[in-house]
Amino acid sequence: MFGRVKPLDAILATAEKKSLHRSLGAFQLTMLGVGAVIGTGIFVLTAEAAQKAGPGMMISFIIAGFVCAVAALCYAEMAAMVPVSGSAYTYSYAVMGELVAWMVGWALILEYAIAAGAVSVGWSGYMIGFVQNSLHITVPLELVRGPFDGGLINLPAMGIAVVITGLLILGTKESATVNAVLVAIKIVALSLFIALTIPMIKAGNFQPFAPLGFTGISGAAASIFFAYVGFDAVSTAAEETKNPQRNMPIGLIGSLAICTVFYMLVAAGVIGTVGAQPVFGPGHVALSPGSPALSDACKAIGENAVVCSKEALAWTLRSVGHPMVGWLVGLAAILALPSVILMMMFGQTRIFFVMSRDGLLPEFFSKIHPRFHTPHVITLLTGVFVALFAAFFPVGLLADVSNSGTLFAFAAVSIAVLVLRRTDPTRKRPFRTPAVMIVAPISIVGCIYLFGSLSAATIQLFIGWAVLGLIVYYAYSRSRSHVGRGLTEVHEGDADLPPSSVPPID
After folding, report:
1. What is this structure's pTM?
2. How many angstroms separate the first and last alpha carbons of the chain?
3. What pLDDT, in 10s, does the model give residues 69-89?
4. Residue 249, in any domain of the structure
């Protein structure tokens, strides 16, 4: 099982050819993390968390942030040692062998492709709300929600996925300046939301605090984890960090702490102004988010609850008498979220590209377009699947399935750190995970805990995906693997391909 290890020295030979200037301090790292993390999850998943945990979702943000923090410290050690493309897939290949690497790469497909679908659905919710409230055009529900969510097909979500796919094939990339502007738009929008809602909080809206008990809080934490993904952008900057042993933990923990406080203030603003109690069905049973039953219950109450909204923050502001700021928050989401979809799909194509080049996937996946110089085959295939996910599934289910892949990958990286400390203790580590014998096990247990808190349907989907992955590996990939055939070539291009985890996923 742990055979066929890709030689770490061969992987590192590429990275050593490209020396990066160490210029980032603790402040720059912290800001990088804040920019990468704040985004999709808080705009889109607040209603999902409220349906699962009620006001207790504030605790859910703390739990998810803590698990991210310990996972990030493990991730940083591997990212600093192996600063090449492929993310957790490459780390696993170098430490635990091909089968584990294949399963991690297979799980990362869930992280990126399905997450891109989730963001597309989230964008659709804000876009439709914007159109209906600004232009007073009523859009049929059947055309803007999937069959699990009380409609037929989500055409806007499908459309944005198709547009982004086309841009990726043409080779469009975000510039650092554009990205910085979009990050600023997101942060200004959320700051406005906090400034307007916090003074209007009513303490009574926080009762009962945990209507579904700690199980509900855990379930919401497992979903809210999606709101933090992107923090590993800080980890991958280890090679460019001054005094990484001091500054990496400050950047990682600092950015996650700031984001957690931000998220809790936004959650408090929602809960304290419009309430965030779950909608119950017959027999006082809490209905599942994104289910037809919840959709029907929301129709019965005139969609007059934050858990029913597909644009929770804009809906909250309109409900408390700030329609213009609600309009601006909706516009901020509409402008910022497509760039997140683009970077997720970009990361997905790079994972596929590296796996194809290692022989684990068909070679045509890594074909480069002669004119646009992009991996057009795999980009098109990824785009088709993202569009289908977005068209037919609700945002909560997609986010949870994405989280299952992410949690698996992060647990694998945490195990890899422990294994490599034992098998190769003398190797140069620009950053060492502090108290690794405590932090890494906590990270592994935390990932397992959040994974176990996902819905039964999500866990079953992940297991089915993993079984399918094993079938593909033994039926196709194992016999065609370059490492298995004794080919350990080093690719000069590795160091120039952006690591798949760098994009601001959330």
Report:
1. 0.85
2. 34
3. 899 889 888 877 776 666 678
4. yes
